[in-house]
Specification:
4 helices; flat
């Protein structure tokens, strides 16, 4: 279950990272409240996953999911650049996440 919690935490990290864009410095109420809720859920689930996962692995996977997901949302929905080098770097992060998961398979 720890990996499920960690994956969901990473998805909520994508949500709050994107939410930050729309809070306009936490001056807009609804986006700010939704972003803070997503942060709380993300941190809570990360914390729960740490009961049985190594901190280094869990934190790296959590931030990796957030980074890759946020970058892909930016590319596909917000018109951010999609150069080959950028996509390759995103792929390298994915390879790192998978590598951490595979080498932590006993958890």
């Amino acid at each position: 279950m720890a990996w499920v919690y960690l994956t969901i935490a990473g998805l909520f990290e994508i949500g709050w990272a994107l939410g930050l864009k729309y809070t306009e410095g936490f001056t807009r109420l609804v986006p700010s409240v939704l972003t803070i809720i997503a942060m709380a859920i993300s941190f809570g689930l990360l914390s729960t996953s740490l009961k049985s996962l190594p901190i280094g692995t869990a934190y790296a996977v959590w931030t990796g999911i957030g980074a890759v997901g946020t970058a892909l949302v930016g590319i596909f929905f917000l018109g951010e650049p999609r150069e080959t080098a950028r996509l390759l770097c995103i792929l390298l992060i994915v390879v790192g996440i998978v590598g951490l998961k595979v080498t932590s398979a006993s958890h």
